[in-house]
Amino acid sequence: MYIVGVFYSLLVLVSANYESYKVYSVIPANRTHIELLGLLLSTDKLDFWSRLSYDSRSVDIMVPPQEQRDFIMYLKKHDIQYEVLIDNLETVIQREHVKQQLIPRTFRGKISFSKYNTFNDINAYLYQLQMDYHNLVKLQNIGTTYEKRGMVVIQISSNPSANNPIIFIDGGIHAREWIAPAQVLYIINQLVENPANRDLLDDVDWHILPVANPDGYEYSQTINHRMWRKTRSQQAKNCMGTDANRNFEFYWGLSGASSNPCADTYKGPKPFSEVETQNLRDYLLKIKKNAKLYLTFHSYGNLILYPWGYTSELPHDEFELRTLAKEVNDAIVKAGGPSYTIGSSTNVLYAAAGGSDDWAKGVAGIELSYTIELPGGKKNGFDIPANEILKVVNQTFAGMIVYGKYISVKY
Ligand code: ARG
Ligand code: ZN
């Protein structure tokens, strides 16, 4: 009995969720190929890591062991080229996990850009900033999550009574996109702690939510759930979570969202079914009079997207949205970063309704609304390796300066 017990716990230790999962980089050669791959989007068994788009050279797809045979047969039948990007995902995740553990814990209240921080470390940093910079920083608890974690917005303002225009930024609506909270934290760090950026606070207030899906973020940091994307609410007997970025009430469920509670892009039982999206909605409605720019960070794909996500029609101010995105991209490239593809969500990607960006523009009336898909890790897994975080977030920050100046000049 005892021996069985020991053996069993050993088994549990080595049992792995992503053993033999593969990630394929699929290279469509024409529109037909893209449409054939598009058909796979609606099967809930494959997980598109990077998004399928008409101008991307390749798309990365995670395939569980039991689907690999059919998947490869489908590609071969239609003569679609592919490469194996990751042969065994479990190995890559284990490696990332070990590396994370080896990086020493930061002191409470300090933030690191050489590792992905835990939700607690992120909050401790925010509270430390409030203490150290009390005339610049104010924290606002905007509500609690399904698992009762607090959602904290940091308000950065050098003149709170000036009624300045507000830039609102969030990250981490999707749990596994770890680079997004890291990026957002770097923006906070630079705005608050780098005196060279003080002028960015002269005419603009910045309200920032670093982790929009805390339950999911924490869950994705447990070893067997690295690829978790959704919230953590109970939806069906064996299926948890809603895709928060399909849960906003604006043409909810019209396109690119699943009705299957077990699917990764589940839209939820009703619009704003999730307490996390409710909290974000209520906060944005509260600041909407002054909010002039909404930025939401995701990964990956190197894209700057603007509405609409629910339709291929373009918004009335598409020219302004595109021109500003180009300036942002130019600044990122100039800082040594990658070049981003720019366009409306539906035209650059696929239609997907219920996103926070569409809602911010369509309902809250924040006309300048963008989703930024940051770089990903590819061979190294979903996110870039921790030792590259600082480089990437610093390059992207060059684009934030452009956004800040644009808002301060326009309003
Ligand atoms: N990768 C993001 C997602 O799938 C893109 C969102 C773009 N915006 C939209 N409203 N579809 O959620
Ligand atoms: Zn995302």
From TrEMBL:
Keywords of this entry: Carboxypeptidase, Disulfide bond, Hydrolase, Metal-binding, Metalloprotease, Protease, Secreted, Signal, Zinc
GO molecular function: metallocarboxypeptidase activity; zinc ion binding
Active site per the UniProt annotation: E373
UniProt cofactor(s): Zn(2+)
Subcellular location: Secreted
Superkingdom of origin organism: Eukaryota
Database matches in SMART domains: Zn_pept
Signal peptide residues on this chain, from the entry's feature table: 1-16
Primary location: secreted
Example of a GO biological process term: proteolysis
Keyword flag Transport: no
Gene3D superfamilies: Metallocarboxypeptidase-like, Zn peptidases
GO cellular component, one term: extracellular space
Pfam family, one: Peptidase_M14
Record family assignment: Belongs to the peptidase M14 family.
PANTHER family assigned to the protein according to its UniProt record, in alphabetical order: FI02848P-RELATED, PROTEASE FAMILY M14 CARBOXYPEPTIDASE A,B
Biological role: Involved in the digestion of the blood meal.
Name of the protein this chain belongs to: Zinc carboxypeptidase A 1
Annotated source species: Pyrocoelia pectoralis
